[in-house]
Amino acid sequence: MSIPSPTELPDAFLEHLKSLGLDIAVTSFVHYQNRPVLSPGGRYDEGPTQEWCERMDSLLVSSIQLIHIFYT
To answer: How is 6-72 classified by DSSP, letter by letter?
Structure first.
């Protein structure tokens, strides 16, 4: 079984993750796709960037806690 490239075929990759039931990976990938982009001036908009970073931090912490629960 080949895995679609997340950079070349993001929609197919997302469907692949969903088909495997990897909900945390689906959530992380969707948040990654919504990451902040540089403005025309070459800077990030501070508010949305900070919000995105906080959400990603929350995902990482919850993922680590979930892994810890399953393996202890």
So the answer is: TTT-HHHHHHHHHHHT-HHHHHHHHHHHT-----TTS---HHHHHHHHHHHHHHHHHHHHHHHHHH-
Q: Where are the domains of the chain?
A: 10-71
Alpha-carbon 7 to chain mean position:
13
Q: What is the pLDDT of residues 2-45, one digit of tens each?
A: 889 888 898 999 999 899 988 878 888 888 888 887 888 888 88
How many Cα atoms sit within 13 Å of 71 on the Cβ side? 6
d(CA 19, CA 25): 11
Q: Which residues, other chains included, contact 42 with Cβ-Cβ below 8 Å and sequence gap of 6+?
A: none
